[in-house]
Design brief:
- This protein has helices at about 1-20, 30-45, 70-75, 85-90, 150-190, 200-210, 230-240, 255-265, 280-285, 300-315, 340-345, 350-355, 375-390, 395-405, 410-425, 435-440, 455-470, 475-485, 490-500, and strands at about 45-55, 60-65, 75-80, 95, 120-130, 130-140, 220, 245-250, 290-295, 315, 325, 330-335, 360, 395, 430.
- With about 500 residues, the chain is of the alpha/beta class.
- It has 4 domains: about 1-175, GAF domain (Beta-Lactamase, 2-Layer Sandwich); about 195-365, Rossmann fold, CATH 3.40.50; about 370-450, Helicase, Ruva Protein, domain 3 (Orthogonal Bundle); about 455-500, Homeodomain-like (Arc Repressor Mutant, subunit A).
- The chain is elongated and about 95 Å long.
Length: about 500
């Protein structure tokens, strides 16, 4: 009676420990190995293996084992239907071999069992619903006092727990891989060298960003609306050591004062009418990553004081809360306002201004870098052609209108204009008479020649850039190539293509 009670207690302890181990982390192999060690400690198991089905190879392979060497584990390979392990996978039913020495199906593939007599072998399928993932098998010394049925029942429960752990880990790995792929895609999309620009002004912006991206320094982006401040902010994040952590953006002008504070710092249940539960703020969500605060000049003095504390001490409390929350967040702020004048007028805190303005970066308006317009048009055409399954091009006259237009809405306005032109175009070619009236009315057609095209315009600008780089480097092609971010072979080809000589102007 006492022995039976002791056995029951060991079984319960084994089940509890295995359950806790399997849920302790996402390190599946480590958790499975520790689970096998626990079985050995509680249930007198000599050896134990977890053999899983590999869909790629169609084989059953030992994933983890207790009581086997690495060489023995490496030999543990089976086909479905082969030996006891393969038979259990094939049938989906458990098998119990009271005495291995008398069982012809036992292959001893691992060569781990020199003496097989008086060794019992229990093998149960690891299943989720109707899918067999593998098998759990154990060796134990044959004991008439121990019920094989009891052992089998415990192993089946543990096999179920293992199956659930494998499925959860598989889902976790799938999501992790998706996240890695997305991060990789975002890193490429928002890579500073990939920002579409040929103008010297934007190249200087990119150079500054590359210098500051790896640092912890706060950045203040200045420039008109639509110049691409959020694009630069994302590029700074994905070029930094924080690229695998969150990038969180918030337009401070888009929310009223009462909501802005809650959005930035979060709130506790009951903090205000409608706060039915706690919610983390943007700073919490951006922990270890980057927060982008657009239109920073639109926040009031009260919130400015709380923001200053976060920048100075890296701490804050949620609305309605008393717990101090610590965060490690890099701040990139942006504004189109004159913060200096606002400081003088007492509308913006001077101490906050200096905290934000560690590295100021001015993004020029599109009208001040017209050479960027042709490559941007090409980029947007390509993107929207793909999105709307079209093949729209633009004729020279229309291109020249777009180059000369002042673009008060900057890159954002250009992007929206190209999308509208692609959507509405039915001929396959964007012509000057299809452009919005507000663009044509601002530009005199007399200023144009009909020569050239998008490609010609691009090549003209590219030639000018190469000549300028060569002059800066005293016509040293290797140095000029590095300056332009291309190979020496590429610059050699382009010099020949454009007929550039040492006296080109």
């Amino acid at each position: 009676m006492m022995e039976t009670l002791k056995r029951k207690n060991e079984e319960l302890a084994a089940l509890l420990d295995v359950s806790m181990i399997l849920n302790s982390s996402f390190e599946l192999e480590k958790n499975l190995l520790n689970a096998m060690k626990t079985l050995s400690e509680h249930l007198d198991m000599q050896r134990g293996t977890i053999t899983l089905f590999d869909r790629k190879t169609g084989e059953l392979r030992i994933a983890v084992a207790h009581g086997l060497t690495r060489e023995q584990i490496a030999r543990g390979k089976y086909r479905i239907g082969e030996g006891i392990v393969g038979r259990v996978v094939e049938t989906g039913s458990p098998m119990v071999i009271p005495d291995l020495g008398k069982e012809p199906l036992f292959l001893n593939r691992t060569k781990a069992r020199i003496e097989k007599d008086n060794v019992s072998f229990l093998c149960v399928p690891i299943t989720i619903k109707d899918e067999v993932l593998g098998v759990l098998s154990v060796d134990r010394i044959f004991d008439k006092m121990v019920s094989v049925e009891e052992d089998l029942r415990v192993l089946q429960i543990i096999a179920t727990l293992i199956g659930q752990a494998i499925k959860i880990h598989s889902a976790y790995e799938t999501e992790r891989q998706k996240k890695e792929e997305l991060t990789k895609e975002l890193k490429n999309r928002y890579s500073l060298p990939n920002i579409i620009s040929v103008s010297d002004k934007m190249q200087e912006v990119i150079k500054t960003c590359l210098k500051v991206a790896k640092s912890r320094a706060n950045v203040l982006l200045r420039g008109e609306s639509g110049t691409g401040k959020e694009l630069i902010a994302k590029a700074l994040h994905y070029e930094s050591d924080r690229s695998n952590m969150p990038f969180v953006a918030l337009n401070c002008a888009a929310l009223p004062e009462t909501l802005l504070e809650a959005e930035l710092f979060g709130y506790e249940k009951g903090a205000f009418t409608g706060a039915v539960g706690a919610k983390p703020g943007r700073f919490e969500l951006a922990n270890k990553g980057t927060i982008f605060l657009d239109e920073i000049g639109d926040i009031n003095l009260s919130i400015q004081a709380k923001l200053l504390r976060v920048l100075q001490e890296h701490t804050f409390e949620r609305l309605g809360g008393t717990k101090t929350i610590h965060v490690d967040v890099r701040v990139v702020a942006a504004t189109n306002r004159n913060l200096e004048e606002m400081v003088k007028a007492g509308k913006f805190r001077e101490d906050l201004y200096w905290r934000l303005n560690v590295v100021p970066i001015f993004i020029p308006a599109l009208r001040d870098r017209r050479e960027d317009i042709p490559p941007l048009i090409e980029h947007f055409l390509k993107r929207f052609n793909k999105e709307y399954e079209k093949n729209i091009t633009i004729n020279p006259d229309a291109l020249r209108y777009l180059i000369e237009y002042a673009w008060p809405g900057n890159v954002r306005e250009l992007e929206n204009t190209i999308e509208r032109l692609v959507v509405l175009n039915e001929s396959g070619i964007i012509k000057a008479d299809e452009l919005p009236a507000y663009i044509k009315d601002k530009i005199s057609i007399k200023n144009y020649t009909s020569e050239g095209s998008l490609i010609v315009e691009k090549e003209r600008l590219e030639k000018e850039r190469i000549i300028e780089a060569l002059k800066k480097c005293n016509f040293n092609q290797s140095k000029a190539a590095r300056l332009l971010g291309i190979t020496q072979r590429q610059i050699g080809y382009k010099i020949q293509k454009y007929g550039i000589t040492s006296i080109s102007s």
